[in-house]
Amino acid sequence: MDRSVLEGDPHSVIEGMAIAAYAIGANQGYVYIRAEYPLAVKRLKNAINQAKEYGLLGENIFGTNFSFDLEIRLGAGAFVCGEETALLASIEGYRGEPRTKPPFPANKGLWGKPTIINNVETFANIAPIMLRGAKWFRSLGTEKSPGTKVFALAGKVNNVGLVEVPMGTTLREVIFDIGGGIRDNKKFKAVQTGGPSGGCIPAEYLDTPIDFDTLTALGSMMGSGGMIVMDENTCMPDVAKFYLEFSVEESCGKCTPCRIGNVRLLETLDKITSGRATMEDLERMKILGKTIKDSALCGLGQTSPNPILSTMYYFKDEYEAHVLDKTCPAGVCKNLITYKIDKDKCVGCTACARVCPVEAISGSIKNPHEIDQEVCIKCGACYATCRFGAIEKI
Amino acid sequence: MPKITINCKEVEVPENYTVLDAVKSIGGYVPTLCYMKLEDIGIENKPASCRVCMVEIEGRRNLAPACATPVSEGLVVKTHSRRAIQARRTAVQLLLSDHPQDCLKCPKNGECELQDLAAELNIHNNPYFGKMSVHKKDISAAIIRDPNKCVMCRRCETMCNEFQTVGVLSAVNRGFDAVVKPTFDWPLENTACTFCGQCVAVCPTGALVERSYIDQVWDVLEDPKKHVVVQTAPAVRVAIGEEFGYEPGTISTGKLVAALRVLGFDKIFDTNFGADLTIMEEASEFKERLENGGYLPMLTSCCPGWVKFLEHQFPELLEMPSSAKSPQQMFGAVAKTYYAQKAGIDPKDIVVVSIMPCLAKKYEANREEMRSSGYQDVDYVITTRELADMIRESGINFHNLPEEEYDNPLGESTGAADIFGRTGGVAEAALRTAYEWITGEELGNVEFEAVRGYEGVRIAEVDIKGTTIRVGIAHGLGNVRKLLEDIRAGKTEVHMIEVMACPGGCVGGGGQPYHHGDFSIIKKRTEAINRIDKSKPIRKSHENPSIKKIYDEFLGKPLSEKSHHLLHTEYFEREWL
To answer: Tell me, what's the ipTM?
Structure first.
């Protein structure tokens, strides 16, 4: 989303920053962009040069005493550098690690000086507010969360892409009206909001109006504005594992709960999705997740257990099925599913045996085939190939 | 002053306090791990990363680290709510789940802060287990790094970067793989590491420990063909008592000597003899440089960590330091020549063991040029801690040992030698001798207060017969860097600079009993050293009768050809990284 603003309308950000700088009396601004967004960098550079040519940046803007310059700092793409204190450390040339707050950047920020640090989207909102007034802005959205929000709608919906809606729009409106509903007419299962450390919200809350507070109350968050829709074929423990893997990968490793705690959570999820977990593991995971939320140093660590805690809360049955029955109700967890050939439906076409990468399927032409469970790696190739619906996933 | 409430008790505390300061101010306690404050040298390690000192603050969504949370009006703190204790225990359990479970075999067994925390927090089982970090061990002549035991407290990084400005150790990798290591995971021996050992001095676990030479020393003590002489550095006698429960600042010289005798060393000598010898050479060199327009300022060269720092960081200044060897190496060289001759022992059969407060001395003894006797001048260097280990291992009851005297001729020393163990001491000792040599007059008050103290850089002016001699003193390599840069920029002019790499000088060395973040211990050792100096009948190196004798019988005079051969050395440019 932020990338699309920088690529599509970099001047909105430059203007917003210049106004903010004027408001606080700053004369130097930085835009921190990951180097993996070369187009955004190129266009922003271009826009900065244009702004300088027009006297909108640089010395004595509009002939006033106010001077403001902008510099681009390229980051190496560490997720944690989205955390404000880590971002500041990175700009200063230090390891991209957050530090404890307070002091907040507004008191002691870049190079130890008071600094305001905002998201691209926030700065892009400033110029329109200056032009049309705060009242206009407040006329949009809800009382506590005024204005609009851009969501990156993705997942199993028919229309994916960036969606700007007034705050207070319901999840259902975004997913079913704008998003055009679930792909292949499948059932909606959950929506994950706020990026990798957001929580998963189930169907019963589809009519919740979206704002900062409601999402937090549901165990998720506004976060980056990501919105990923999941259908009935999604396994929630597997989803939690997917997101946690990301947090583990992106942790800076500074504080104990995030560095080691998240790895222990991930290992437990691995046990669950492979059918090796006990109910004690579930309980322990919940306690550890809550402790990590309560004691990690920065926003990354404090939110990383959200996908687990929210799915454990809303989809408890699914976790219990993995642990007690050793089954994956969504049929996703490889270790918990078995492919079997229905002898009555199998016509002996041999297609499955030919696609099996490990030669687990035997049988002669025109006779029912059989899968050797010892050899089968549960890749699902046979299941996808069979045109007679003879292969069952249990 | 803000009023805050700690565990239902209202207190008023200074504005700049943290919650931890406030808790301590009312006699309370919150366990810490990564936090370390050495106020006297301006060092504070406060990453708030271990999450052990978590406390509950009313109205806040999350727990807060006491060490890094500033106080503010009306703050209500609970230090031991179940929730806070749960978080502390979890942090320690998680650390233990990625920590080798070899406490009983670990060199830090009994001194490990993680081990103490586990005991303190009643961690009798650990629900957390799983994959463990795998990093390779690095063994140098002085320091052993075992990154698998690193808890990312970053204390070593703070000492290496902020205090010493050496910058060898820093956090690398991220997530679970994050650990403190040298660049590119190079062995310390390939880096600009000075082996000062301050990383070892502050490491809470066994991730950084000294390389022990205890086994080698036992072997030579058992070998009937070997004549094993031992030398003890001035800072050892004021610290070793701590290992046996004595108060910091206890002077244990007599028991130290007795213990070494019981352990089976053939001769118990004193590095102090080497220190007096160093002053003879260094003061002569200073006088010569001063009077004949030589290169000034002259830098002291007793501290091997400092010497290596200079070789790496200021290779263009290699002419500055005195060419005099350190007391340890002077001792080694004369033990295998002068003493060997006198005692009629073939130097190949003499083994010189040093007891040092220092890890860099292990490295120094192994420097290739330190072989002027024809053999390695100093064979093994063990630290104050290692000697304490040997004493314990032998079952010697340190308390019951008698007070014994050093052997002669290499055991006699002056008060000037004793103060080598603290910052400002080498300069003071040199001044005591240089003053008399330059003026030809007897020095009344031998105590130069101006060079004493704990400021990182001190400039003292001493009047020597109308000439003002400016002496710079720095402890901590970061401080000497500042001083040298000022000199290079022409901001300061001095005639002589004394440098010690460790905080407070050798008393705060990397091989001393662990101070566990309490700098007052180092100050007490310093005071003890000053007491010893005061109690000595002779307090100027050139008045040491045994020193006079060695020049009469063997060396001739200071800076003689023989002195140059045995007691002086040279320095080499080393790579910066």
So the answer is: 0.93
